[in-house]
Amino acid sequence: MKLLDVKNLNIGFSIDDDVFSVVQGVSFSIEKGKLLGIVGESGCGKSVTLMSILRLLPQNAVVNADYINFGGKNILNITEDEFRKIRGNKIALIPQDPLTSLNPLYTVGNQIIEVIMLHQKVDKNKARELAIEALRQVNIPEPEKRIDEYPHQFSGGMCQRVIIAMALSCNPDLIIADEPTTALDVTVQAQIMKLFKEIQQKLGTAIILVTHDLALVSEVADEVIVMYSGEIVEKAASSQFFKNPKHPYSQGLLDSLPKEDVQRLKVINGQPPSIKDKITGCKFHPRCKCAMSKCSFEDPSVIVFEGGHGVSCWLYESGNV
């Protein structure tokens, strides 16, 4: 059963009496206990897509969709008061920078306890017990002691574990992790990814991981979505995607990863378009080595291959693999 199901999501920003589109026709879903990776270059619409679901976009954002179903209910139609009972409780957010997400004036315990008491009907003593258990779940040593320490007494990796503990404290059905390893070194990144996999497998929590790091996604994701300029250009099971990426943009992203036998990294020429650029046809065609004449004036349709591997590209209009 689909835990989150998004159909035809469109997002724009109203600037100087004009609305600039940043996300167009995005549809995706995730089942309970699965991990979905959403990848692409900076500015491709990954984070804004997820922030729209959490209703955390600025006031000049214009959001519409056919529906955004969560737990079988269209959350587009509920009030902000009703949604506050979902955000932080049933859907938790792990933001990019843990150091700026924690208040330096309060202990980490107070900050986790505040979240628990906001969403669960428990007293402060019970909330403290739950906070200690959440810290234990994310492998923070001596949680009974460290719960009374301040953020500056934790390393960057440990601060990220605190944020994850905060997200877990209300037993959410879905965690949205927005570039959660950006500020961490490679070793700590691997530890955090391992922790996400443990959470997914042991607790049955669904996780959406937003990142530009394909190497991380390859290790943990069940399904991969590739976004470019506000659109989904490829969607597939992780095993299918990394074995046989189909869209030229996906292939370019994978080719740019460091390899042991390659000294010079490959790059995708050009830059992603800005929201003010008016590009007709396939948004990727100005940078695409495989572009054809029709790519510049006609949007490609979605071709779905065996196993549900979908790609939006004119190269496959006849079903060519």
Description:
An eight-stranded mixed β-sheet has the order 7-8-9-3-10-11-13-12, sandwiched between helices. Strands 1, 2, 4, 5 and 6 form a five-stranded antiparallel β-sheet that branches. α5 packs across α7. β8 (174-178), α8 and β9 form a beta-alpha-beta unit. It has helices at 46-53, 80-84, 98-101, 108-119, 124-137, 143-146, 156-168, 186-203, 214-220, 238-243, 248-255, and strands at residues 2-15, 18-31, 35-39, 61-64, 67-70, 73-74, 91-94, 174-178, 206-210, 223-228, 231-237, 302-304, 310-312. The model has no long low-confidence stretch (mean pLDDT 91). By secondary structure, the chain is of the alpha/beta class. Helices cover 31% and strands 24% of the residues. The chain is globular and about 65 Å long. The chain contains eleven helices and 13 strands.
Features of the shown structure:
321 residues, alpha/beta, 8-stranded mixed sheet, 5-stranded antiparallel sheet, 11 helices, 13 strands
Helical content (DSSP H or I, runs of 4+): 25-40%
The beta-strand count equals 13
N→C terminal distance: 30 Å
Q: Label the structural class.
A: alpha/beta
Secondary-structure element pattern, one letter each: EEEHEEEHEHHHHHEHEHEEHHEE
Choose one word for the global shape.
Answer: globular
Main sheet attributes: strand count, strand direction, barrel closure = 8 strands, mixed
- Mean pLDDT across the residues is 91
Strand content: 15-25%
Poorly predicted regions are none
Q: With helices defined by DSSP (H or I, 4 residues minimum), what is the helix count?
A: 11
Output the strand order for the largest sheet. 7-8-9-3-10-11-13-12
Radius of gyration: 21 Å
